[in-house]
Design goal:
A nine-stranded mixed beta sheet has the order 5-4-1-8-9-10-11-12-13, sandwiched between helices. A four-stranded mixed beta sheet has the order 3-2-6-7. Helix 1 (49-59) crosses helix 8 (261-275) and helix 8 runs antiparallel to helix 10. It has eleven helices and 13 strands. The protein has helices at residues 49-59, 74-85, 147-158, 172-175, 178-191, 199-205, 211-219, 261-275, 282-290, 293-311, 321-326, and strands spanning 13-17, 21-27, 41-47, 64-67, 88-90, 102-107, 113-118, 132-138, 163-167, 194-198, 225-229, 235-239, 245-248.
């Protein structure tokens, strides 16, 4: 893979569309008869799958903007500051929400988590959409209305000048009926050049079908490259033109947690494709459509490497190029 210096911009500027929110994780306090106070301890941090991808791309030196929907409240300002500090630019209108979305997770004494969501999602119009060479979206934003329809319309317009990547990143608690979610998700698949999907996503969306059969069906809808992640079993990439597949194993790693691992994989994959001219505009789309396995394997390897580093760190750690060299 070509080693571009930090801050270079193969493929131009990337736009990520989707939710940025606050993850509020509460750990149930120990019982008073054990010497505890019985109070919950809550830790808040910036989250949201698309936001994590944008932050991952910025950490790898790619110019990136995030079209999201937060407020000018304390949570929204925290998100905006966090993005600015890490080189992610919010598009105009991204702070127009009535409140900033929060995902509340409560961890009980056994380690089990229960969730409660306060969500608001719309997509403000994206100025100068044609200035972006690549557009990525996924997760809640592409499905949850009223913003989901606007996301899909924006992808359709962006295809004129940009390559598109998509990660369903299924959230069953928020996506309702799997049949309806599948319909919307497969609309996005048809708009994408690159799809990354987990084996767990496929099992929820199409439980009666083998993953290989689903991927073959999706390949016929438009994407040139589909990558299925399988946790510690690595990833399988399929090229639509030839039907060839590549199995990428994960080297041994001590896992601290898996928070943000899929988003880190997605950022690494996009980064590798941008660097090698396989994403970043209509000409790159043509190159990806003609590519052989040897051309895409370096991007898969970068995705494996970034996600491997992430799981070795607490939280949604975003690796840099220096981390890739040393790691």
């Amino acid at each position: 893979m070509t080693d571009h210096p930090l801050g270079s911009a193969p493929g131009g500027r990337t736009l990520v569309i989707g939710e940025a929110l606050i993850d509020a994780v509460a750990t149930a306090g120990s019982r008073e008869d054990d010497g505890g106070t019985g109070a919950d301890a809550t830790v808040e941090h910036v989250g949201g799958s698309p936001a994590n991808v944008a932050l991952g791309l910025a950490a790898l030196g790619h110019p990136v903007s995030l079209a999201t929907w937060v407020a000018t409240d304390d949570h929204g300002n925290r998100i905006a500051d966090h993005c600015q500090e890490r080189g992610v630019e919010l598009t105009p209108g991204s702070q127009g929400a009535p409140f900033t979305s929060v995902a509340h997770a409560t961890i009980d004494g056994t380690g089990a988590a229960t969730y409660r969501f306060e969500l608001e999602w719309q997509l403000p119009a994206v100025p100068a959409l044609g200035a972006y060479g690549h557009v990525h979206t996924g997760s809640i934003a592409a499905v949850l209305e009223p913003g989901g329809g606007a996301v899909r319309d924006t992808l359709g317009m962006a295809r004129r000048t940009a390559t598109i990547s998509y990660d369903p990143n299924v959230r069953p608690a928020l996506m309702g009926d799997p049949v309806e979610a599948r319909r919307v998700i497969e609309e996005c698949v048809a708009l994408a050049d690159v799809v990354k999907v987990s084996d767990e996503d496929l099992a929820w969306l199409r439980p009666e079908e083998a993953p290989d059969d689903v991927v073959a069906d999706w390949a016929g809808r438009g994407p040139s490259l589909i990558v299925v992640t399988r946790g510690d079993q690595g990833a399988v990439a399929r090229l639509t033109r030839t039907g060839e597949t590549h199995v990428a194993p994960v080297p041994p790693v001590t896992v601290v947690d898996t928070v943000g691992a899929g988003d880190s994989f997605m950022a690494g994959l996009i980064s590798g494709l941008l660097d090698d001219g396989l994403a970043g505009g209509p000409a790159a789309r043509d190159r990806l459509g003609r590519a052989d396995l040897a051309a895409v394997v370096p991007a898969i390897e970068r995705a494996i490497a970034t996600s491997r580093i992430t799981v070795g760190q607490p939280g949604a750690h975003a690796p840099t190029r220096a981390d890739l060299i040393s790691g």
